[in-house]
Amino acid sequence: MARPALSTVAELLKPITWFPPMWAFVCGVIASGVALAGNWPLIIVGILIAGPLVCATSQAVNDWYDREVDAINEPNRPIPSGRMPGMWGLYIAIGWTVLSMLVATVLGPWGFAATVVGLLLAWAYSAPPVRLKRNGWWGNTACAISYEGLAWITGAAVMAGGATPGVRSLLLAALYSAGAHGIMTLNDFKSIEGDKLSGIDSLPVLLGVNGAALTACAAMALPQVVVIALLYHWQMPLHALGIVALLALQLLMMRRFLGTPRQLAIWYSGFGIPLYVAGMMVSAFALRLSGAEVAP
């Protein structure tokens, strides 16, 4: 049986997509308030699980079950192009799922459970009969939870020895997960034709290009407004002002994006989203410096 080249396997696993959950895991680690010294092995394992394992698994699963759609939208991808022959795409998805669970045992019960939840969401998003991605509201919610909230909470809980993170940390994780729904919508603008032909109701299909763009911007901006208000309420004004500045820059970019959303979705993803995730880290450091989230 023909085997794919290692470069093709790497392309299937999409390293460029690993950053968001890895970043969110680190945000949770920072927000926990627990000293980093002596915990680096645990932190490194957690980062590897968040990105090169669980996130990579989700990419392999998605590409396998999207191979017909990708043949329309992106025929040069590994599976529709034939560079990933036979059933290799599915084999890799299954193998990476098992490997992720094995490595996650190092993180203890909480880390292992979070990994299993992330993997279940990854398969539910792409694989029938659930295939959450058939509806943009449900599919994007599953991705947003896995990429941001679940990873943040896992980082905080693992650092706290498996204890439940503080309420403030949970609130911020939930808010940034809600905002990530908009980030996921941005990814759907490039595949509108294939989604329509395949019966996938992404938000650009359901709401139209302009409606989906406005919804994505609102989904990203409103949670950040709430974060700013919470930080002020928690007497962290400097961190709140930092996020105000980051949000102001995003709003300027959103104004341009809304003019021609289909053409500028990739542009906004490249320049606007880094400002969004920078605010996540600012919020995490706010909790850390306040001392409110330090585990006993």
List keywords for this structure.
14 helices, mainly alpha, 296 residues, 0% strand, single chain
What does this structure look like?
The chain has 296 residues and is mainly α. The chain has one domain (11-290). The chain has 14 helices and no strands. It has helices spanning 6-13, 19-32, 40-65, 67-73, 78-81, 88-104, 108-126, 136-159, 167-186, 192-198, 203-233, 237-259, 261-271, 273-290. The longest helix is centred in the last third of the chain and has 31 residues, at 203-233. It is globular. The model has no long low-confidence stretch (mean pLDDT 93).
How would you summarize this macromolecular structure in one to three sentences?
With 296 residues, the chain is mainly alpha-helical.
N-C termini distance: 55 Å
Note poorly predicted spans: none
Q: What structural class should be given to the helix and strand makeup?
A: mainly alpha
What integer value in Å does the Rg equal? Answer: 19 Å
Count of DSSP-assigned helices: 14
Average pLDDT rating? 93
Strand coverage percent: under 5%
Largest sheet: none
Order of helices and strands: HHHHHHHHHHHHHH
The coarse overall form would be globular
- Tell me the helix content: over 70%
Number of strands: 0
Number of domains: 1
